[in-house]
Amino acid sequence: MNILTAVVSFSEFLIGLILFPKYISYMKKLKLGQYIRQEGPDLHNYKEGTPTAGGLVFLIITLVAGFILQIPKELLLTVLFYGFIGFLDDFVSIAKKRSLGLRAWQKLALQMAFSIWIAYSVLQYRTSSIFGISVPKWIFYVFTMFLISGYSNATNLTDGLDGLAGWVFITSALPFLLLSKSHTQFSSILVLVMPVLAFLVYNTRPAKIFMGDTGSLALGAYISTYALITENELALIFFTTIFLLETISVILQVGSYKLRGKRIFRMAPIHHHFELLGWKEEKIVGVFSAWNLAIAIFYLTLTSKF
Fold it and tell me: 102: helix, coil or strand?
């Protein structure tokens, strides 16, 4: 890590610590807060009205720092594109005073459209391969569309408890530092990790602010785009097991209920299942984050990269 990266990254953290309280006060003054979905657990009713869309702050910090550190334009535009989709979703939710913002098909259509551009841009300096296996370009495009959109939504599903999505993202992103082959790759991870850490100071239970879809959609898209750029698609799977588990739990729950009329979990995503079993939010966040990091370390050890 060079001096510029160190200074900018540390500055991001400090600026985040300063800006988030101001953002929280501003949102409270305007009386703009989160609306809790009715089908969620009753344990979350007290969170109604908590300032949301906090991802807007750490994404802006990331964009400025990323420009200074000259990280790949694909990553900067991923932050911009997917942050924009999330912001639209949060804006609609707040404006219409409901937990549901954009319709699912509207978000997915925008996610897919932006991922096509990312695939095109990435192919300008890497081969059309998946997990090291060469494939036709059209297959790479389809893979990219599902990968980025999938991770964007997976992070969104994980964002259901105070600090959960943020800490799982941190434990997913940090292992990539050990695979970095250049200052640019190293900086590309720290540039988003540091402001998210500042956000977690105010998002850890009891949360004073939520990242909203503005933050969660961008975080998932960012880490998957980074994996594509650095050709670390396989590592991505092992570094993000909680994001995958959360998504799979929803698919299994919906599939089981539609086919058999029975639920597998008390509630999906799976973090709500454990919550209804009596686990405290802090325990779920700690266990899930530790599991996520442990699997990443296992992969790094297994591949002799740690």
Answer: coil
Beta carbons of 131 and 234 less than 8 angstroms apart: yes
The Cα–Cα gap between 4 and 208 comes to: 32
Average confidence score pLDDT of the chain: 91
**The pLDDT value given to residue 49:** 74
Two tokens, residue 290 = 């530790």
Read off the pLDDT of residues 182-226 as tens digits, 9 standing for 90 and up. 999 999 999 999 999 999 999 998 899 999 999 999 999 999 999
Helix (H, G, I), strand (E, B) or coil at 192: helix
User: CA 16, 18, 21, 24 torsion: positive or negative?
Assistant: negative
Give the C-alpha distances (Å, rounded to integers) separating 186 from 134, 226, 252: 26, 11, 36
Phi then psi dihedrals of residue 103, to 5 deg: -70, 155
Please say if the pLDDT value at position 305 is more than 70. no
Contacts of 5 (CB under 8 A, 6+ apart): 69, 183, 186, 187, 190
Q: Is 285 exposed, middle or buried (0-12, 13-18, 19+ CB in 10 A)?
A: buried
Alpha carbons 218 and 204: distance in angstroms, whole number: 19
What's the distance, CA 43 to chain centroid? Answer: 24
At 214 the pLDDT is 95
Residue 197, H or E segment: helix 183-203
Nearest to 20 by CA among 49, 76, 58, 46: 58
Are the C-beta atoms of residues 207 and 47 closer than 8 Å to each other? yes
